[in-house]
Amino acid sequence: IGKQEAKLAAGGEAPSKNSQRATSCRPTVFVDVDPSARIFQEEIFGPVVAITPFDTDEEALDLANNTKYGLAAYIWTSDLKRSHNFAQNVEAGMVWLNSNNVRDLRTPFGGVKASGLGHEGGYRSIDFYTDQQAVHINLGEVHNPVFGKQTN
Length: 152
What we know:
The chain is an alpha/beta fold. The protein has helices spanning 2-5, 38-41, 57-65, 80-89, 124-129, and strands at 7-10, 28-31, 48-50, 69-70, 72-75, 94-97, 112-113. It folds into 2 domains: 1-53, no CATH class; 61-134, no CATH class. Helix content is 22%, strand content 15%. A 3-stranded mixed sheet has the order 1-2-3. It has a two-stranded antiparallel sheet with strand order 4-7. It starts with a helix and ends in a 23-residue tail after the last helix. GO terms for molecular function: oxidoreductase activity, acting on the aldehyde or oxo group of donors, NAD or NADP as acceptor. Belongs to the aldehyde dehydrogenase family. This is 5-carboxymethyl-hydroxymuconate semialdehyde dehydrogenase.
């Protein structure tokens, strides 16, 4: 799909038949990708990157947010103020600044929009994997109130 939609800059070869990782793909880089291309709009869970140029931070945010998905964003820059501004405005459940996919397991994991069903990780796992339930039992120590009209 990517080769039909964008310029292949690196990778893209299928693994050899003798490879133990026959279902994986080699790291692949596509450049000058049109933002409407499927490889730009969908989440790809593999070593594939789709790169498109932009002129301003606002344009970059529009490109990043103009998709139905929002699992993660990776921001690489030497300008920390700029990266914080981008992180606050990008529609993603997780943001890495000058870092790759390394996370502290005590932090929430999950996406926004069509990327997931909430967050897990840290204390949020308790809420994510459990349901609250109240059980009330009268052990005979409390008088049950009588509602409505009483007759003797």
